[in-house]
């Protein structure tokens, strides 16, 4: 990827810069003093590739305060030869566009699709090399690249050979030792084989004891099962009887209580406390009547407070949006008036400045005709006409000198020079007098000019007569003809120059000898005239807009019959609108309250009818219960109430029984089928039989426990099969341990040899490439770079040419060698990151200012090789370094 063109409209200190076209493909040199924008250019290149960071115009450090925007574009040539154009702008939001052939891609603030393989942090940290970068590794950028380097060197599954060899030795010592000392594996296995053979004899006797105890245990289990079944049956029957005796009593009480109720249907329809309920209902009737009267009184009060709205108020309310809009725009009308007055003031200032500059230039007041002439004056045509005049005048002077020389050779007669001086002086004085409108000076100049011209002509005629008498040379005649033609051209040039200044009262001598001060004055007046015209045009537009706004306001106020059309009338109308809206708001609230009050009144009347109906129903049922007597009906209600409480207690007790219906069935079954008599004596006999069964069962359990414990103890001991199995396993382990001992010894020697060959042949591509760069930059002094794992961690090893042993890089190395090593690794990392992708440009900022001549020349060799595949941007403020780069790379600096 090569940057071939850069156009900067605004970025940092660069505003409207000359486009950088045709940038070199390989090496681009930027030269400028400190603070001239070198760092700014690097961030511009980064922003071109990756977008803006931060993407906020107010926070971006390179947003120029003069224009408050960032705007630049560039053209790139990709590695395949295709050219693309990128435009980026940071306004209120970041914008970006990529032109690729006929396709336009909206980038917004995204990176170019060709640089996604490198993050912006990596590019800034790795692809920008400064002089301080050669002595320290920085931040996140180097951490990420170091991770990539180590990942390329191997993976997490490949371990350090030193650690592997150490572990192999430790494992070999745990299997076998030549000295025989310590508890190594083979010695331990031989002892275990001997012990297992002894345990096999003891296991044979334990098998006989287990068979005898198992036979007695089987008899005990049969007896326990028989006695347990008998005990369970008795226990279940006893528990069932004990459980059903209370149920039988509750069912008997329930039946008796249910038969004692009087007129139970009428009782069930009455409330729990009918007398209290009747009193409560009467009190509630009185309260509801009071509430209804209060609601009616509030309805009448609210109805009287609702206000009427007049037709004029309705008209104002109808025009609410227009009134609010005009009130909102009242400030804009005042702003427009202030803008018009401001423009008028600026126009007056420019007029005064034009008058001042005109008087200073022309020494008189300027009028519109003079200003029109100045405005129409073309500076480019004036420059061309003035150059033509000077050229013709120079030609006349040269021809005159040649003519005089030839005349002196042939004739000794010489025309007095004071005639020529008098003629020229008289012409200048007459021109000045004419320009100043001074007739005396003009007359004096004419007299002097006639005297000088007449004397010159007379002398010339005399000389010509003598010349004809003595010499008729063809060369002199040719010069005369040339002078005549040049004189005509001079007159024409003067006329052309005077015609450009026609209408501008400048003296001819000033016009013929115009200087920078006069031109500067004319330019100032022309600029002021242009500004004046623009201001007047803008004033006309703003006055038109103001009149349109004021006319619209006046027409609106007239529709409301308001004759006074100033802003105070508008604010008064706004106050009336607020008053009407407030009145309507109050009315809406009152109407809403009236509807709520009427709804509440209706609800109270409905509730009153319900209460009256409930009160009449209670009194009617009490009469029926007491055979026409309410008091007697109350007594019967209280009696039934007591019976209901008793019945409820019985039912609550019955509810405590789960599956009550099944319990009733069991009760009937015991009484009818099994002939059970629910008495205490029968329960005591049954419980005595159960105790005897329990004692017998406990004796059998104790014996069973003893036998089982004996069997368990015997079974917990190791069996013959286990011993035989263990013996076979240990003998197999013993053979494997001997084999493993031999394998570990052989593997240790193989790894040592393989590690030595691998380190020479299989170093990663990054280090191979870095070794190549390091060899170039050190002029062949070093040949290889390695990464080696030690007890202290990862370290870098280098190998000198002609030396077999590699050397670890430490602080004892010279600063220059460390710088060369770091630069080689850094450039190799760039190649690694770009592999298979676009080669991104690299930026060097004062990278080699501290390098000696030899190292600098070697480094230039490396940069030449790098620049074949990657574009290099080099920034420096040192002239000597810039000159050396120009000579070496055949490039031309770009001065900032």
Automatic annotation (TrEMBL):
<feature type="domain" description="YhaN AAA">
    <location>
        <begin position="1"/>
        <end position="204"/>
    </location>
</feature>
<dbReference type="InterPro" id="IPR038734">
    <property type="entry name" value="YhaN_AAA"/>
</dbReference>
<feature type="transmembrane region" description="Helical">
    <location>
        <begin position="440"/>
        <end position="458"/>
    </location>
</feature>
<feature type="coiled-coil region">
    <location>
        <begin position="580"/>
        <end position="717"/>
    </location>
</feature>
<feature type="transmembrane region" description="Helical">
    <location>
        <begin position="417"/>
        <end position="434"/>
    </location>
</feature>
<dbReference type="Pfam" id="PF13514">
    <property type="entry name" value="AAA_27"/>
</dbReference>
<keyword id="KW-0175">Coiled coil</keyword>
<keyword id="KW-0472">Membrane</keyword>
<keyword id="KW-1133">Transmembrane helix</keyword>
<dbReference type="InterPro" id="IPR027417">
    <property type="entry name" value="P-loop_NTPase"/>
</dbReference>
<feature type="coiled-coil region">
    <location>
        <begin position="158"/>
        <end position="240"/>
    </location>
</feature>
<protein>
    <submittedName>
        <fullName>AAA family ATPase</fullName>
    </submittedName>
</protein>
<keyword id="KW-0812">Transmembrane</keyword>
<feature type="coiled-coil region">
    <location>
        <begin position="469"/>
        <end position="496"/>
    </location>
</feature>
């Amino acid at each position: 990827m090569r940057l071939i063109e850069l156009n900067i409209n605004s970025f940092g200190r660069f505003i409207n810069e000359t486009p950088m076209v045709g940038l070199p493909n390989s090496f681009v040199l930027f030269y400028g003093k400190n603070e001239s924008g070198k760092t700014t250019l690097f961030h511009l290149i980064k922003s071109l590739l990756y977008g803006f960071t931060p993407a906020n115009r107010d926070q971006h450090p390179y947003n120029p305060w003069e224009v408050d925007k960032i705007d630049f574009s560039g053209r790139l040539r990709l590695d395949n030869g295709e050219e693309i154009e990128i435009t980026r702008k940071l306004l209120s939001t970041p914008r970006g566009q990529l032109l690729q052939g006929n396709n336009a891609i909206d980038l917004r603030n995204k990176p170019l699709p060709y640089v996604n393989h490198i993050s912006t942090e990596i590019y800034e940290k790795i692809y920008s090399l400064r002089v301080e970068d050669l002595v320290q590794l920085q931040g996140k950028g180097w951490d990420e690249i170091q991770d990539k380097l180590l990942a390329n060197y191997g993976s997490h599954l490949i371990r350090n050979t030193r650690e592997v060899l150490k572990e192999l030795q430790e494992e070999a010592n745990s299997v076998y030792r030549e000295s025989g000392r310590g508890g190594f594996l083979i010695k331990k296995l031989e002892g275990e084989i001997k012990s297992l053979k002894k345990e096999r004899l003891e296991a044979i006797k334990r098998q006989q004891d287990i068979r005898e105890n198992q036979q007695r245990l089987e008899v005990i289990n049969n007896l326990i099962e028989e006695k347990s079944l008998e005990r369970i049956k008795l226990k279940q029957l006893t528990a069932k009887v004990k459980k059903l005796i209370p149920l039988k009593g509750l069912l008997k009480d329930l039946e008796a209580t249910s038969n004692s109720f009087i007129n139970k249907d009428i009782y069930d329809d009455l409330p729990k406390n009918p007398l209290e309920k009747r009193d409560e209902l009467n009190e509630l009737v009185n309260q509801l009547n009071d509430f209804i009267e209060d609601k009616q009184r509030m309805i009448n009060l609210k109805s009287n407070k609702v206000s009427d709205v007049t037709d004029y108020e309705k008209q104002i309310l109808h025009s609410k949006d227009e009134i609010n809009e005009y009130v909102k725009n009242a400030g804009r009308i005042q702003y427009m008036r202030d803008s018009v007055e401001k423009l008028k003031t600026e126009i007056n200032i420019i007029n005064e400045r034009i008058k001042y500059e005109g008087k200073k230039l022309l020494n008189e007041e300027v009028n519109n005709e003079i200003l029109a002439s100045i405005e129409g004056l073309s500076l480019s045509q004036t420059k061309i006409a003035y150059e033509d005049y000077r050229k013709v005048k120079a030609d006349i002077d040269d021809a005159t000198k040649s003519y005089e020389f030839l005349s002196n050779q042939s004739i000794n007669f010489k025309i007095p020079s004071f005639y020529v001086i008098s003629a020229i002086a008289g012409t200048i004085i007459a021109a000045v007098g004419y320009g100043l409108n001074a007739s005396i000076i003009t007359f004096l100049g004419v007299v002097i000019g006639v005297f000088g011209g007449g004397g010159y002509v007379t002398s010339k005629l005399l000389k010509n007569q003598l010349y004809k008498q003595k010499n008729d040379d063809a060369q002199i005649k040719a010069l005369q003809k040339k002078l005549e033609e040049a004189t005509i051209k001079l007159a024409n040039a003067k006329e052309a120059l005077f015609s450009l200044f026609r209408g501008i009262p400048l003296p001819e001598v000033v016009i013929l000898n115009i200087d920078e001060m006069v031109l500067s004055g004319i330019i100032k007046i022309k600029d002021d005239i242009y500004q004046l015209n623009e201001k007047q045009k803008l004033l006309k537009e703003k006055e038109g807009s103001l009149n349109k706004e004021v006319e619209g306001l006046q027409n609106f106020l007239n529709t409301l019959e308001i004759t006074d059309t100033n802003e105070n009338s508008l604010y008064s109308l706004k106050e009336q609108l607020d008053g009407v809206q407030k009145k309507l708001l109050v009315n809406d609230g009152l109407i809403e309250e009236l509807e709520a009050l009427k709804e509440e009144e209706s609800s109270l009347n409905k509730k009153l009818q319900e209460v009256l109906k409930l009160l009449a129903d209670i009194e009617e049922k009490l009469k029926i219960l007491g055979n026409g007597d309410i008091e007697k009906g109350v007594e019967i209600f209280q009696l039934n109430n007591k019976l209901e409480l008793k019945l409820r207690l019985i039912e609550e007790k019955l509810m405590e029984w789960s599956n009550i219906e099944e319990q009733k069935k069991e009760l009937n079954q015991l009484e009818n089928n099994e002939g059970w008599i629910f008495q205490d004596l029968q329960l005591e006999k049954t419980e005595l039989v159960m105790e005897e069964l329990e004692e017998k069962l406990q004796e059998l359990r104790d014996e069973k426990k003893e036998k089982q414990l004996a069997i368990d103890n015997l079974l917990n001991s190791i069996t013959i099969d286990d011993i035989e199995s263990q013996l076979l396993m240990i003998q197999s382990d013993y053979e494997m341990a001997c084999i493993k001992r031999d394998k570990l010894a052989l593997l240790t020697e193989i790894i040592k040899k393989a590690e030595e060959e691998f380190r020479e042949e299989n170093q990663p591509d990054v280090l191979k490439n870095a070794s190549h760069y390091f060899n170039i930059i050190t002029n062949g002094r070093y040949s290889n770079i390695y990464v080696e794992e030690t007890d202290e961690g990862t370290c870098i090893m280098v190998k000198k040419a002609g030396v077999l042993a590699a050397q670890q890089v430490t602080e004892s190395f010279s600063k220059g060698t460390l710088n060369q090593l770091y630069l080689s690794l850094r450039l190799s990392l760039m190649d690694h990151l770009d592999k298979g992708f676009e080669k991104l440009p690299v930026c060097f900022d004062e990278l080699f200012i501290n390098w000696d001549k030899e190292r600098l020349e070697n480094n230039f060799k490396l940069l030449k090789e790098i620049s074949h595949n990657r574009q290099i941007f080099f920034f420096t403020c040192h002239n000597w370094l810039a000159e050396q780069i120009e000579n070496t790379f055949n490039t031309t600096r770009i001065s900032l």
